């Protein structure tokens, strides 16, 4: 979306955008790259690209095993994604067996209860409130791939395990409780959860 205007989508801009709701993604991209789009036009093109390019994303290594493990041990789990509902459904269509194991899914770009996107804590607080037992923030553990998400979880009073892309700078990793190179490195016992069999 930037290239036709001679603009570059840099790593620094990507880090600012990672984990934000779609409207914030649009605003940040337009501002940072000085793109000649309105927010609505940006989102129209963006959603078209998501539909075309993100239909079959792979799971993060270790994700399937971790979700199945937590579900097997009756640990309540949910998804708090900045994606819009339609984008989330598109991205997860190949993994419905896994996503059915989650108690619920909160889509920050389209959920009216989520007033502010990551790095604000809203999505995590809304997500926690939808569990039947409504756990306190300090009882929640968030697994995140975006620094904005880790920051939001910490701001919410939760613990955050960050599994970032390798090129995420060190300073962006600091808010997380712990940073891992892969979900396969996650040790549930560190957080009072049942260890893998």
Please explain how this structure is put together:
- The longest helix has 15 residues, at 39-53.
- The model has no long low-confidence stretch (mean pLDDT 95).
- Helix 2 packs across helix 3.
- The chain has a three-stranded parallel sheet with strand order 3-4-5, with helices on one face. The protein has a two-stranded parallel sheet with strand order 1-2.
- By secondary structure, the chain is mainly alpha-helical.
- It has helices at 11-17, 22-33, 39-53, 63-72, 85-92, 96-99, 122-129, 147-155, 170-173; strands spanning 79-81, 105-107, 141-144, 159-162, 178-179.
- The chain is globular.
- The chain contains nine helices and five strands.
- It is 39% helix and 8% strand.
- The end-to-end span amounts to 46 Å
Strand content: 5-15%
- In quaternary terms, these chains amount to single chain
Q: Which structural class should the secondary elements be placed in? A: mainly alpha
Give the biggest beta sheet: 3 strands, parallel
Strand line-up across the major sheet:
3-4-5
Low-confidence parts: none
The overall strand count is 5
Listing every helix as H and every strand as E from the N terminus to the C terminus, the arrangement reads HHHHEHHEHEHEHE
- How large, in whole angstroms, is the Cα Rg? 17 Å
The helix content, as a percent range, equals 25-40%
The DSSP helix count reads: 9
Per the principal axes of the C-alpha atoms, what is the gross shape?
globular
Integer average pLDDT = 95
């Amino acid at each position: 979306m930037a290239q036709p205007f001679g603009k570059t989508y840099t790593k620094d801009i990507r880090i600012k955008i990672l984990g934000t709701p779609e409207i914030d993604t649009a605003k940040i991209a337009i501002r940072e790259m000085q793109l000649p789009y309105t927010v609505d036009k940006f989102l129209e093109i963006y959603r078209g690209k998501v539909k075309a390019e993100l239909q079959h994303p792979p799971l993060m290594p270790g994700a399937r095993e971790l979700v199945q493990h937590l579900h097997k041990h009756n640990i309540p789990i949910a998804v708090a994604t900045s994606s819009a509902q339609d984008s989330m459904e598109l991205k997860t269509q190949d993994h419905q067996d896994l996503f059915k194991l989650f108690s619920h899914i909160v889509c920050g770009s389209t959920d009216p209860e989520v007033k502010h996107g990551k790095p604000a804590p809203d999505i995590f607080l809304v997500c926690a409130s939808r569990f039947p037992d409504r756990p306190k923030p300090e009882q929640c553990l968030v697994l995140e791939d975006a620094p904005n998400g880790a920051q939001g979880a910490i701001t919410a009073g939760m613990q955050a395990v960050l599994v970032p892309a390798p090129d995420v700078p060190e300073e962006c990793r600091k808010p997380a409780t712990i940073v891992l190179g892969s979900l396969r490195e996650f040790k549930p016992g560190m957080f009072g959860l049942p260890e893998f069999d």
